[in-house]
Amino acid sequence: MITEPAKTFTRMFRGYDPAAVDAHIEMLTTKQQLLLDDVESLRARLKESGDEAAALRKEVAVLTDTSPSPHAMQKRMAQMLRRAVDEVSEMQAEARAEAEALIAAAEAEIEAERRKHQEVLADLEARRKAMEAQYQEAKDKLEAELASMREDADRAREQLLADAKQKADHDREQAQRAVDEASGQRIRILEQLMGVYRDLEGVPAALESAYEEQQNPSEAKSENPPQEKSAGKSPQKSAEKPEEKVAAR
């Protein structure tokens, strides 16, 4: 009986290498066919031995029936024939035993290889299921993390929008207050300027009178002394008016 060492397969990411497994199975199938051919050859030899034994029995029967030799020769011939028949029977038994042993060994080896192949397939199936479970677990975990990240991003976006809206409202209020304050200040300045303008309306006439008095002081005193007094006082009064109005405002 021919025995083979235990075959080892290269492990890959999802189990054994399919090409190595297929090649080993093909080799075992070829070996099985060779063993079956040997068994058929032994069966053919066994049949030939049986045919030879049958032919020898026929010859013994013919010699026993037709031989004119004495009784001693018949006895020796009978012993020789029995010895030949025994040898043929022994050869047949040995050939039959050898054939049966070869058949049993081949069947046992085939069964062992079949079980080994089934174990390999079962191991591959178990690995596939384990990897599918790991993949599903990783997928579920990743989806949960993505959902959590989306929720965090949505909350952050809403918070940013709320903060931006609040800041925009605050800036708008500040700008409106600044505009209102500037408008009020402008109005106050314009009002002050308007008061100053009204107070300065009499300045040209008073200035002209002062020039005339400077050029002709004697005439101005003789002709209109009271007017000089009033004319001298009016610029002071006109000059005081803007300050009083500005202070009042």
From TrEMBL:
The keyword Cell cycle applies. Residues 162-184, 207-249 are annotated as: Disordered. Residues 162-180, 238-249 have a biased composition (Basic and acidic residues). GO terms for biological process: cell division. The keyword Secreted does not apply. Residues 212-237 have a biased composition (Polar residues). Keywords: Cell cycle, Cell division. It comes from the Bacteria. This is Cell division protein DivIVA. It comes from Mycobacterium alsense.
